[in-house]
Amino acid sequence: MKKWIRGLAFAIILALLLGRTYQILSWKDTYGPYFSSVRQLYHTDDDLMDVVFMGSSHAFFGVNPAVLWEQYGISSFVMGSCSQDMNMTYHFLKELLKTQSPKVVCIDLYALTYEVGGEAVEGDNIYRATLSMNLSLNSLQLISKEVDEEEQLQHILRWPIIHTRYRELEQDDFEDSDFDHFGRGYYKIFLSGGSPGISEELQSDTNVAELSEECLEWLKTMIELSEEEGFELVFFLTPYNIEENESVWERYNAVKQYAQEQDIPVLDFFALSDEIGLDYEQDFWNEYHLNSYGARKLTEYFGEYLHETLELADHRGDDSYWQWEWDMEDYLSEEQEYRMINAATSIDDFIDIVQNGSNLTYILTLCGDYWQYREDIAPVIAQFGIHLNEYPNGGTWLFVDGELQFIMDNSSEEVFVYELDSESTLQIENLSIRDPSVSVYENVKINGEAQMTAQNGMAIVVYDTYRHQTVGRIDYN
Fold first, then answer.
1. How far apart are CA 348 and CA 352, in angstroms?
2. Which of 166, 320, 365, 463 is 20 to 30 A from 372 (CA-CA)?
3. Nearest to 235, CA basis, from 50, 107, 112
4. In terms of Cα–Cα distance, which of 298, 305, 233, 331 is closest to 72?
5. Closest Cα partner for 49 from 59, 57, 60, 40?
6. pTM tops 0.70, yes or no
7. How far is it, in rounded angstroms, from Cα 294 to Cα 281?
8. Does residue 425 contact residue 337 with C-beta atoms inside 8 Å?
9. What gap in Å lies between CA 255 and CA 233, rounded to an integer?
10. DSSP letter string over 94-143?
11. Where does the pLDDT of residue 65 fall: very low under 50, low under 70, confident under 90, or very high at 90 and above?
């Protein structure tokens, strides 16, 4: 009896250890390092997604659910993966339909450019598709279609592939990532690299290719799935550099024609580029993918289309959709930080971003011999409601979400302490009064670290209470 108990205990402990080991070593992304639409799906409660976007990197760089939530309260999700071909699109959608009941499914037609199992879909991108899902009949069917027969067992067992990952383990392998909980499948990037897009000559080409049996079968299957599951089907094309590839463009033309015959809407954002104001130099981060500014323009059009053509609920204010609210806050916070650091071309631009931002606390200081710069400083501080002649001794002003909270004259011996959030404390103290060797710009500290670099002039420090960090600085001296 004791041997049986010891054996059972050993088996339980071994199973727990193997389970934890697999959890650590398992593949954790469908886009790039530790960012996975599948993991985000598994961390989302059932029946919350009203709109789902399917596709490759063109989709997950091109459609931003935070924008749809911000403007319409639409609960959307991008179920994407790198190099997502037709089979991947189908089986990723099948995985999502196990727990979600979307009213609309929008599919990026770039999936048609991949040959299933071809050279464009290999290596890590195959792993991202086959190793990210929980093992089930659906994932087994995907493996059987995407992986060579002699390698299928490795993808099913998974251990032969992942056991060597111990060399590349990082912190995110040992704990849940924030992106597992609030990411809605969009990969934000604000860099601008530009794209040649598509030539006018190619775009005006109306020739139609003959669709392959595989492509036709996929289209029919997606239509049947939409009828079975009760969702509206929408196709779309995200702009990118096609490189004069006539065969790809003519295949798109064929699918648009087929979709029209089946009464399926197709949003061709190549043709809509001018209407949405897409700038091919500024709204792409490389020649194939939109950046966050381009994605906002495309998504805003999508939002208007969905809002006008379908009855979709506005879920804002419903606590069940906290992940969408959190996702929007995260996106808007990072967007305004990027704009402050990189997009503001003047101090007036900077101030406009700060005063119209959210979750921002900002501190303005007139320090040292600022009077020598008074003609330049006066119109700037006037935008904060401060009149220079009223403060001959300079001072420090604290604003929280645009509202003035505190003023300290530079001759004051007061020590002011303010809790910015749960992680940071602001301290304002005229240290230079007590010790002339202390620089004036050390008077303002966050968590004990001086925030200013100006010794004689004006300084503004911006702290984001959502991101728990300083996100912008202006020093004028």
1. 6
2. 463
3. 107
4. 305
5. 40
6. yes
7. 10
8. no
9. 14
10. HHHHTT---SEEEEEGGGGGSPTTSTTS-THHHHHHHSSSPSSHHHHHHH
11. very high
